[in-house]
Write a structure and sequence with these properties.
Radius of gyration: 25 Å
Keywords: Lipoprotein, Signal
Largest sheet: 3 strands, antiparallel
Structural class: mainly alpha
Mean pLDDT: 92
Order of helices and strands: HHHHEHHHEHEHHHEHEHHEEEEHHHHHHH
Number of helices: 21
InterPro entries: SusD-like_2, TPR-like_helical_dom_sf
Shape: globular
Low-confidence stretches: 1-21
Signal peptide: 1-18
Protein name: SusD/RagB family nutrient-binding outer membrane lipoprotein
Oligomer: single chain
Length: 521
């Protein structure tokens, strides 16, 4: 009876709504919103959102701590320092979009761009660049999480597929390398580009080819522990194609120190907002540079120490502070050594406000320094005969130090200092293959600092270098083991349960910070 009365009550309401529907749909359309995909706009957004996604939680607090570039005395933000709080690692999943379906991630952006430019021959260059950038985004995601949605991902709008399958990482790598090869080959100098909508190269397809081959080189080298023969094939194919070896070809994104937060360098903004707000006293998340990093830079007499690191020195009355880069003053904080504010907290080193913390600092997306280190490893493995490991290593060090000049005068390192460093830390040509790879990888740990913590994390898992001493803070989540994989959000077990469980089972039955990805042997 109650059900009948409810239906009886709703019936006239339904008629009323039907009568009022005339013209309602038109009234409900936002006249200022675009109803069609604008590829240039979405590509710009895909570039910006992909590189900045979850920087604070992932690159800073999780990877930056576990790779011992940073340390904290607090427990909550100690995802990498004390191996606590796995939730910081789940945020990178946001590249797919918000789980509440209210936000669109960079994966959907790039899929929409590809769909929009996939048919017109005149858009071939836009399509190629989008495919290369798609590979860049997915390689970061799969390297963090392992098996992930790939072949069916980003299809919710076009295919109404809200539960994509999880592809195996081996298959994802095979497809990314194929995509890079095909995209590079399809470039046509006679056709249009994204132009100024491309924040990295402004539509320069010659440079995009080098970027694509450099990414191919990175991905090929990632396969060394699972399929050396296949790794060699792709590494040599990339080198033959032409990679980034000149500083003029470095992939960067420019930022400005404007009032709009989105226009600022997200690393500087993230570090400032998360920790390094004002000199003296406590920091928001208790962060400082790690003792491991500072000790290494001081021991090797690395001039980058004075570019990246400062200690706040108080005035006589203690009311003002001066950022001091003097080598003798620099001191890193031991990882997982404290659970409350250390009495000497102010004496520990933190990022230089005149370089790292500048809102107008550029983002270095892919550098010649990294490529030279990859070429050095290729030479050590006998896969690159056009150069020597020593020459490539020296070029990497030189480029890696000179690139700090892009951050302003405080980042300039003289040729004399670079030469002095190379003299004091010569490449070990007589070392074994493993010893040489250790030196190359340790240099990568320094050179890619700030530029690409994600790649440092991946290279450490692949090679085991640099040698880092794990922490074993009471109650940590890994049993005193440095985290090796990011944790997929619990929401996937709700919204995409079947595929999530299948992938979890396939990867050893676990979804935690101690899991490993396919290429990590």
């Amino acid at each position: 009876m109650k059900k009948f009365l409810r239906l009886l009550y709703l019936a006239p309401m339904a008629l009323l709504l039907a009568a009022c529907d005339n013209g309602f749909e038109e009234m409900n359309v936002n006249p200022n919103a675009s109803t069609a995909v604008v590829p240039g706009f979405l590509f710009t957004r895909a570039q910006l959102s992909a590189v900045s996604n979850n920087y604070t939680g992932a690159a800073y607090l999780t990877i930056g701590g576990s790779m011992q570039h940073f340390a904290t005395y607090k427990e909550v933000p100690a995802a990498g320092d004390k191996y606590f709080n796995y939730t910081y690692s789940t945020g990178s999943w946001g590249m797919y979009g918000g789980t509440d379906m209210t936000t669109q991630g960079s994966i959907i952006d790039i899929e929409q761009v590809i769909s929009a430019v996939n048919t017109a021959p005149a858009d071939v260059n836009k399509l190629s660049v989008a495919r290369i950038w798609k590979a860049y985004m997915y390689h970061r995601l799969t390297d963090l999480y392992g098996d992930i949605p790939y072949s069916q991902a980003g299809k919710a709008l076009t295919d109404k597929n809200y539960t994509p399958v999880y592809d195996q990482q081996s298959a994802i790598y095979a497809d990314m390398l194929k995509e890079l090869e095909q995209a590079i080959a399809a470039f046509d100098p006679a056709q249009a580009t994204f132009g100024t909508s491309d924040l990295i190269y402004g539509g320069d397809i010659t440079k995009w080819k080098k970027f694509g081959y450099s990414l191919m080189l990175r991905l090929g080298m990632r396969l060394t522990q699972v399929d050396a023969a296949l790794a060699k094939t792709w590494v040599q194919k990339a080198i033959a194609g032409g990679v980034i070896t000149s500083d003029s070809d470095i992939a960067t994104i420019a930022y400005v120190d404007g009032s709009v937060t989105a226009s600022r360098n997200f690393i500087a903004s993230g570090l400032m907002g998360t920790d390094y707000v004002t000199p003296g006293g406590d920091n928001v998340e208790g962060g400082k540079f790690s003792k491991t990093l500072i000790d290494h830079l001081k021991t090797t007499k690395d001039p980058r120490l004075n570019v990246i690191s400062i200690v706040w020195v108080p005035s006589a009355d203690g009311k003002t502070f001066t950022a001091d880069t003097t080598t003798a003053l620099q001191k890193g904080m031991q990882n997982a050594a404290f659970n409350s504010l250390p009495a000497d907290f102010n004496s520990y080193s933190e990022p230089n406000p005149n370089t790292i913390l500048k809102y107008s600092a550029p983002l270095l997306v892919f550098t010649s320094a990294e490529v030279h280190l990859l070429l050095a490893e290729a030479a050590v493995r006998g896969w690159y005969s056009a150069g020597t490991a020593q020459a490539e290593y020296n070029s990497a060090v030189t480029s890696g130090m000179k690139q700090w000049a892009l951050f302003g005068s405080a980042g300039t390192i003289s040729d004399a200092k670079i030469n002095a460093y190379l003299t004091a830390n010569p490449y070990k040509t007589s070392g074994s293959v493993d010893e040489q790879i250790e030196q190359i990888s340790t240099q990568k740990w320094v050179t890619l600092f700030l530029e690409d913590e994600y790649e440092i994390f991946s290279n450490w898992r692949r090679t085991g270098y640099p040698k880092l001493t794990p922490t074993n803070y009471p109650g940590n989540l890994t049993g005193g083991k440095i985290p090796t994989r990011f944790q997929i959000p619990d929401s996937e077990g709700i919204y995409n349960e079947t595929n999530f469980i299948e992938a979890r089972t396939r990867q050893g039955g676990t979804n935690n910070l101690s899991s490993v990805v396919w290429w990590d042997k």
